[in-house]
Amino acid sequence: MNEVVGSHDLLLVTLDTLRYDVAQELAAAGRIPNLARHLPGGAWERRHAPGSFTYASHQAMFAGFLPTPAAPGPHPRLFAARFAGSESTAGGTFVHDTADLVSGLAAVGYRTVCIGGVGFFNKQAPLGSVLPGMFQESHWEPEFGVTSPTSFEAQVACAEKVIAGLPAEQRLFLFVNVASLHQPNWFHLPGATREAGDTRASHAAALEYVDRHMGRLLAAAAGRRPCFAIVCSDHGTAYGEDGYTGHRIGHDVVWTVPYAHFFLESSRDSAAAPSSGPFLGEDR
């Protein structure tokens, strides 16, 4: 990452509440083509979430603890705060001297921007202001939230406006928390009703909705220079498995999440990505 930070814009997208099994099924069935074209072999990487709900998971991710590969480690991390005894800080890790990645990137010249989605980013109360408060600039509107059937396209429009307003030389770290997968999501499934509520099928339909607009976000992110993108879930959610519903519980469908990172070539030129080899995973 030391070859990337400073030369590339950075994009982190959390598909809030997205389950690994649903994400993988849709990729294999060709139902999310805009995302699948960036996945190695067209498949998501199976990882373990750093938390079982949005607030805890994002606090960890903003400290550099991205979802961990679902295999024995330790796994070298992409980003890490300087911390004595870390077993996962490697030669290629971008190490910062601040407590969180957001301020660490700001310290090396990045403009840090948050486009929030779920309630922990709505800035309507002190708790909903903690995570967006880490960024130099943050955006949230009711149209971005969980009750809006058009939330992601509204977030993409905001991202396009933010990116278009930046000076050409300004590096950007853009974070987008996508609310569409979170309950309620029944309105994304044709024929579903509020009374019937959310289901695994409506969760899948919400991911298809997000994919239809993902190409616009990725194109905007790479519109000024090459961009390194991370797209992942922060946690999954249960739809009746073993009697469980929702998240903030210790069930496998909550802890197991999809993850991918990839380079986006700039639409302004054909600059090649650094030839530093594959990035490894995340651990402590």
Per-chain topology:
Layout lengths: L8 E7 L4 H9 L4 H4 L8 E4 L5 H8 L6 E2 L9 E3 L12 E3 L4 H7 L2 E6 L21 E3 L11 H14 L6 E8 L21 H22 L5 E6 L5 E2 L5 E2 L5 H4 E9 L20
Parallel strand pairs: 1-8, 1-9, 4-5, 6-7, 6-8
Antiparallel strand pairs: 2-3, 2-12, 9-12, 10-11
Strand order of the largest sheet: 3-2-12-9-1-8-6-7
Q: State the CATH architecture.
A: 3-Layer(aba) Sandwich
Distance between the termini: 17 Å
The mean pLDDT is: 92
Describe the largest sheet: 8 strands, mixed
Write out the CATH superfamily name: Alkaline Phosphatase, subunit A
Instruction: Please provide the count of β strands.
Output: 12
Spatial shape: globular
**How large a portion of the residues is in β-strands, by DSSP E?**
15-25%
* Helix proportion: 10-25%
Reading off the top of the CATH hierarchy, the class is best stated as Alpha Beta
Number of helices, where a helix is a run of at least 4 consecutive DSSP H or I residues = 7
- Rg, nearest Å: 18 Å
- What is the ordering of alpha helices and beta strands? EHHEHEEEHEEHEHEEEHE
Uncertain segments are 270-284
| Classification by helices and strands | alpha/beta
